[in-house]
Write a structure and sequence with these properties.
The chain is α+β, with helices and mostly antiparallel strands and 181 residues long. It has a single domain, classed as Aminopeptidase, CATH 3.40.630. Strands 1-2-3-4-5-6-8-7 form an 8-stranded mixed β-sheet, with helices on both faces. A hairpin with a 4-residue loop joins β3 and β4.
């Protein structure tokens, strides 16, 4: 694998880019303060734009590491970030990465997350040299599983009581795709 860091990527409707402090207000307003967005995630809704800015500054410090990947998802027609897609876990020995993502509720059901995550997956497979990409979701959040299916990931199983989210200890479903799939 050859790590390249969070580089700018584009799709027809989206720009995937590094977060900057100027994104804090949009991040807070568009998804990070929404308890429905964070319902099945591991972090609490942000209480203010300042919390979002602190998160962005922490993320920016990680950009110095070429193995750190965290993209803001900017909707071209809006000119604002509406979510994120990130590498949340690496396993260098098996050349594998786990993706995590969040998207503002007004943009659910429009195919934007499969578009964003699909572009990130192509980058990981083609440019970084990843062999396996996986993602997990709380079994009570089947919409996230549908995103994974649209990305061509295959169902691998359910891990009972294996994760924690804002719902407490939960069962999670694992999906993955290999480079050769």
């Amino acid at each position: 694998m050859e790590h390249k860091g969070t580089v700018r990527l584009e799709t027809e409707r989206l720009i995937l880019r590094r977060l900057v402090p100027e994104d804090a207000e949009a991040m807070y307003r568009n998804w990070a303060s929404d308890s429905e967005v964070t319902r099945f995630l591991t972090w609490q809704p942000h209480g203010s734009p300042e919390v979002s800015e602190a998160f962005i500054r922490k993320t920016m410090a990680q950009y110095e590491d070429p193995a750190a990947y965290s993209w803001g998802i900017e909707l071209k027609s809006l000119g604002q970030v509406i979510g994120t897609v990130s590498a949340v876990h690496w396993d260098e020995k098996v050349e594998a990465v786990e993706l995590g993502y969040a998207l503002g509720r007004p943009w659910w059901g429009q195919g934007l997350m499969p578009e964003a995550a699909g572009r990130v997956m192509r980058f990981f497979f083609d440019e970084v040299g990843v062999r396996r990409i996986c993602a997990k979701h709380d079994v009570n959040n089947p919409q996230s599983g549908r995103v994974m299916q649209k990305l061509g990931m295959r169902f691998e199983g359910t891990l009972r009581g294996a994760a924690w989210s804002n719902q407490g200890i939960v069962d999670v479903t694992v999906y993955a795709r290999l480079r050769e799939d």
